Backbone:
């Protein structure tokens, strides 16, 4: 059986559409805000990964959100570009305007349907909610043939009412019906029951794509996603690294590799180029400043590590004894020792392309190459991880308002530490001197002098990019202001410089966060 979809044509029954909401639901995570340049870079990576639909944002949320969705719609080719909207006319018109220039576009509108949400959040009667669902889909269809309707808190919605709402949305013109487990409450058996019921009971169900959107509050987002697919859902809503509200969303990389690794149990196919998974995961970590935990499935640094002697023996004899997928299948490459102090600019550009940085402007390339040469003079061995860490400031964060220029620190056991710091702020270079209880405190005081702010430092941690005493330090700084948290990262062979870069990265993210406003009752 096939479904004829306005944006995808005839869709075979074994085809699964991957709907990525990293830039929308993922960005709602505390501290995960991205600026326009970062969103565009991430959208490009998602397109190269093979994502079918990119939910680019929530246009009504703020002028910045509208601009980012519009920019992605105008520049990213291949995937369908979706904008999220509540059921209000202004939301839908904003989404329609933001995505109108996309090669392929979608409006995604949602409405709560559970008794709890209708009573306490919407304060509406079921019949009014039903009519609002019809009206919103009808309005959205005036601007695009591809409309997705979501029953927020669908997993806790009464079955009969859910069937009525879905039927009404289909009749109004929805082409995709999404049933979110908004609060991560469901178990796999619930997903099986819900999607089986809808496909069997709702008139017109055979004409639409059913979608599953699962949160990870009970650690079951991926399991629930696979259960929904087994029950007939053919669109999976997910995020890179599983980021998202609270405990996050179903992780794209886990879903994609489950489909690839277990065709016997999940007889479906997606368009994901799995060899680009690791590259995309690392890019998101760089942009957001949040690393995945070491034991994270698929993309954690221990995902293909074996310490047990028995396991090591088995892997050496036959990797399949303890590895159900190959590292290469997700794009994991071994450390490269090729680059060094004698490497030229052309070789450096090729290396950046291989690491997933794409085409880089000449100015950014020159700045990154200068930092690489400085690093090669200080380190005996330059790894791929070293190169990725040092170019992040010049390439990924090249449009930040605040940029590090130089730092001179004097510290020891005989008196207060002193720091002389130069920053470029909105294109102008300024210098400040400050003292403090140690070099980090003195440096952060200098940042405060140059860029006054009220943010509080709530986390400061240091790790190493690679091994050895000459390894680059990777520092994480978390700032909190008015209930909003952001994380920043920086890397350098000098730990204090790395800390300064991390602090500046966090401040730049805070500036993005300040400009963002959350509309009432935003969820999904």
Residues:
């Amino acid at each position: 059986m096939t479904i004829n979809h306005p944006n995808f044509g005839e869709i075979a029954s074994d085809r699964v559409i991957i709907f990525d909401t990293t830039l929308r639901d993922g960005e709602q995570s505390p501290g995960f805000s991205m600026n326009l340049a970062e969103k565009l870079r991430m959208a490009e990576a998602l397109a190269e990964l093979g994502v079918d639909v990119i939910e680019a944002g929530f246009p009504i949320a703020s002028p910045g959100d509208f601009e980012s969705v519009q920019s992605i719609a105008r520049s990213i080719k291949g995937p369908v570009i979706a904008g999220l909207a509540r059921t209000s006319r202004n939301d839908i018109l904003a989404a329609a305007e933001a995505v109108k220039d996309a090669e392929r576009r979608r409006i995604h509108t949602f409405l709560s349907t559970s008794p709890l949400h209708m009573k306490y959040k919407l304060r509406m009667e079921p019949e009014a909610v039903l009519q609002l669902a019809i009206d919103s889909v009808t309005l959205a269809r005036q601007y695009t043939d591809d409309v997705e309707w979501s029953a927020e808190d669908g997993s806790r919605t009464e079955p009969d009412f859910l069937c009525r709402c879905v039927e009404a949305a289909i009749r109004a013109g929805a082409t995709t019906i999404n049933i979110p487990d908004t609060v991560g409450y469901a178990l796999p058996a619930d997903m099986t029951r819900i999607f089986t019921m809808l496909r069997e009971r709702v008139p017109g169900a055979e004409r639409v794509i059913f979608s599953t959107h699962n949160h990870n509050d009970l650690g079951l987002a991926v399991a629930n996603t696979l259960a929904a697919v087994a029950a007939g859902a053919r669109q999976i809503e997910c995020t890179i690294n599983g980021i998202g509200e609270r405990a996050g969303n179903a992780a794209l990389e886990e879903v994609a590799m489950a489909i690839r690794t277990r065709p016997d149990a999940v007889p479906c196919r997606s368009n994901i180029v799995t060899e680009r998974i690791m590259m995309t995961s690392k890019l998101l970590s760089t942009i957001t400043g949040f690393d995945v935990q070491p034991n994270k499935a698929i993309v954690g640094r221990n995902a293909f590590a074996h310490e047990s002697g028995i396991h090591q023996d088995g892997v050496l004899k036959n990797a399949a004894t303890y590895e159900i997928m190959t590292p290469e299948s997700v794009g994991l490459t071994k450390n490269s020792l090729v680059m060094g102090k004698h490497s030229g600019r052309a070789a450096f550009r090729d290396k950046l392309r291989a690491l997933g940085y794409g085409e880089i402007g000449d100015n950014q390339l020159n700045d990154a190459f200068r930092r690489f040469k400085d690093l090669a003079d200080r380190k005996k061995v330059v790894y791929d991880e070293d190169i990725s860490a040092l170019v992040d400031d010049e390439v990924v964060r090249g449009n930040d308002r605040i940029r590090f220029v130089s730092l001179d620190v004097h510290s020891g056991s005989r008196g207060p530490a002193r720091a002389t710091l130069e920053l470029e702020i909105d294109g102008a270079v300024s210098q400040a001197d400050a003292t403090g209880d140690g070099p980090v405190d003195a440096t952060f005081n200098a940042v405060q002098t140059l860029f006054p702010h009220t943010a509080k430092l709530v986390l400061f941690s240091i790790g190493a990019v690679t091994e050895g005493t000459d390894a680059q330090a990777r520092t994480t700084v978390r700032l909190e202001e008015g209930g909003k948290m952001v994380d920043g990262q920086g890397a350098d062979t000098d730990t204090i410089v790395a800390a300064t870069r991390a602090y500046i990265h966090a401040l730049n993210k805070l500036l993005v966060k300040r400009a963002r406003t959350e509309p009432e009752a935003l969820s999904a």
